Amino acid sequence: IGFRYGSLSEDFFTGYSMQCEGWRSVFYSPEEPSFVGDFPATLNDLLSQCKRWSLGLLQAGFSCSKCPITYGIRRASFITGMSYAHNAFWPLWSIPITIYALLPQFALLLSMPLFPK
After folding, report:
1. Contact 88, 68 (CB under 8 A)
2. Per the confidence metrics, is the pTM higher than 0.70?
3. Within a domain: residue 38?
4. Transmembrane region positions (predicted)?
């Protein structure tokens, strides 16, 4: 089995494309791990990998031909399409999380109430 290329996160794109083509997936957890894996050794490598994953997921989510919201719902089930859409647009959650993390500190520094009276 090979990967489908055309996205920075080819594992997500491969699974999504196969699900839309009618393949069925199962979860398999062997007694011993099949792959030990490779992990980023430094913080810079980790941030680079997270950036690559985020860009790849957004690339798959905003693709014109295989958008999970439109193409995924038509080709797979509604729940499968919405699940892939949730994962594809996951990087966008960083925006409101960052705002909600910084808002109390700014309110404290500027001596402004966080909530209006």
Report:
1. yes
2. yes
3. no
4. 92-115
